[in-house]
Specification:
This protein is of the alpha/beta class and 160 residues long. Helix content is 46%, strand content 18%. The chain has a four-stranded parallel beta sheet, sandwiched between helices.
Length: 160
């Protein structure tokens, strides 16, 4: 598992609104990622009407949905959650690469933090290991990452 984990602590986010976009494909995994993200946000005072969840068919749809959420102007950050498990064809490589590229494009063109919660695993067990109700939940990690980044961005702007 990864050695980096976003800092748990006091985030300087103020009153914020978060869009969480989760793929329905591999729902056992993505539902658990969504639960982890929502738990982490609530633990830091971001819950209820401040968090809006949207479901899309699969990982490939995450970039467009993230872009549209950003363009509404209603959200301070987005969390994109999905899971692609390697199969026997190159489909895995294309979906992972294009979804990653698309989400990165949204971050830079829309100037909005997007938590990257896309699991790209070799098998189902690896995905399950990364979405459990534990410290390895990558949905939780994506939520903590955007809270930390929002704090950094506010500090850069001189906001308190």
């Amino acid at each position: 598992m990864s050695e980096y984990r976003p800092e748990e602590g006091s985030f300087n986010t103020g009153k914020i609104r978060i869009a969480v976009i989760a793929a329905r494909w591999n729902a056992t995994v993505t539902d658990a990622l969504l639960d982890g993200a929502v738990r982490a946000l609530a633990r830091h005072g971001v819950s209820g009407a401040a968090v809006e969840t949207f479901r899309v068919p699969g990982a490939f749809e995450l970039p467009l949905a993230s872009q549209q959420a950003a363009r509404t102007g209603r959200f301070d950050a987005i969390i994109s959650l999905g899971c692609v498990i390697r199969g026997d064809t190159p489909h895995f490589d294309y979906v992972c690469a294009e979804t990653t590229r698309g989400i990165g494009h949204v971050v830079l063109t829309e100037n909005l933090p997007v938590g990257f919660g896309l699991l790209t695993t070799d098998n189902l067990q690896q995905a399950l290991d990364r979405c459990g109700d534990n410290a390895e939940n990558k949905g939780e990690e994506a939520a903590l990452t955007i809270l930390e980044l929002l704090t950094v961005l506010k500090n850069m702007q001189g906001a308190e």
